[in-house]
Design goal:
The structure is a single chain. This protein is mainly beta and 137 residues long. The chain contains one helix and eight strands. The chain has one domain. β1 and β2 form a beta hairpin. The chain is globular, with a radius of gyration of 15 Å.
Length: 137
């Protein structure tokens, strides 16, 4: 697995890929709550739902892409794309300025965006198992 964290202007994106080689499979968690509300802050230990598959309206968006080509940052250009319609994630560790974001996904159900009769279920998944950065000497 390969993990990437992008955090900027109230948006947090965590991309987990099957590796560095392409094509690759990926799961992408996109968090927009802080961008749309100055009063909102994501907190460690709080469960958040991932139940809106619409990329226009979701505040916590979760997608899976299969056979994604080189340079794919989101799942839209992958061969097959799935969006979460149920489940929740809980942030277990977060310091985006230091490049640390870990969360546990539970009970997720994904639907194929082109065929609602197919999908994935993910009982549990740990996002961004990258080690914390070493302390500066």
């Amino acid at each position: 697995m390969h993990s990437e964290l992008m955090a900027d202007q109230g948006v947090i994106v965590v991309r987990e890929t099957s590796g560095e080689a392409y094509p690759q499979d990926q799961m992408v968690l996109e968090l927009y709550g802080e961008m749309f509300s100055q009063d909102f802050t994501y907190e460690v230990g709080v469960p958040y739902p991932v139940d809106d598959p619409d990329p226009v309206s979701c505040m916590e968006c979760l997608t899976i892409g299969v056979n994604c080509p080189v340079g794919t940052a989101s799942t839209g250009s992958c061969e097959v794309n799935y969006a979460a319609v149920a489940g929740e994630f809980t942030i277990t560790e977060m310091d985006t300025e230091a490049g640390v974001f870990k969360a546990t996904l539970t009970g997720a159900q994904f639907v194929n965006v082109d065929d609602e009769n197919s999908g994935w279920c993910v009982d549990s998944f740990d996002f961004n198992e990258m080690p914390a950065p070493a302390p500066a000497e």
